[in-house]
Amino acid sequence: MMQDSEAPRRPGIQSIARAAQVLRALREQPAGLTLGELAAAVALPKSTVHRLVGALTSEELLDSSAEGRVVLGGGLAGLAAALHEALAARVRPVLVELSHELAETVDLAVREGASVRFLDQVPGPQRLRAVSAVGAEFPLHCTANGKALLAELPDEAVAQLLPERLPALTRRTSTSRARLLDELAEVRMQGFALDREEQTEGICAVGAAIRDRSGAVAALSVPVPSARFAGAERRCAQAVVNAARSASAILGGGG
């Protein structure tokens, strides 16, 4: 009886799984994909993908770009906002513990296109401290949390997101995309990213990605005034990596 009652639900479950495949395939393609490219990416017949795209478009989860490519739709924005709020609530104890351990400010941020946006922050107790407003956005290429999230993408996706010549925010900002790609290779090996006064003069930072079952969803970072960073870099990096692992474990992700 159980097999008979479950059998009619299988096609629906399969459709949901395929729709999720389509959404994930477009997640790292800001410029979108043609129908053929999308079908190849999810290894499904073009006719099947066409039906899925039609259904998801009617729910505003997908849209078409001016060039006729399939892109993520505006209906995902409300879902993302709710997801980010829940994410921040779940990992906030990790931020608080890390701030207590290092006596520094701790930030939680997510990637939105070519920017990183701050979701939450636990200010450090020091009088001289780095503080950014929750909701503020900063470039990916010159921030520790941004580079930690970029390192989770393949180089081809990074090249699509960022121009060859990157804007300089300080005299220490690297403006070469090729040099950034080399740095991201190091980030992947060591598990954390550094910002050495690249986004703001006088402020350094360490960042590491947080993952759930599907991959990187956010990044933890600790910004530190340069005067204190020189002697604390290694300790900060290890603490941030450990905290990112703890937060990933809460979300069901890998270390």
**Number of structural units classed as domains:** 2
Tell me the distance between the termini. Answer: 42 Å
User: The CATH topology of the largest domain is what?
Assistant: Beta-Lactamase
Mean pLDDT: 90
Low-confidence stretches: 1-9
Q: Helix amount, in percent?
A: 40-55%
Q: Which series of helices and strands comes N to C?
A: HHHHEEHEEEHHHEEEHH
* The CATH homology group name of the largest domain: GAF domain
Oligomeric description of these chains = single chain
Strand percent estimate: 15-25%
* CATH domain class name of the largest domain: Alpha Beta
Largest beta-sheet details = 6 strands, antiparallel
Q: Roughly how many Å is the radius of gyration? A: 20 Å
Shape: globular
Total beta strand runs: 8
Second-tier CATH architecture of the largest domain: 2-Layer Sandwich
Count of alpha and pi helical runs: 10
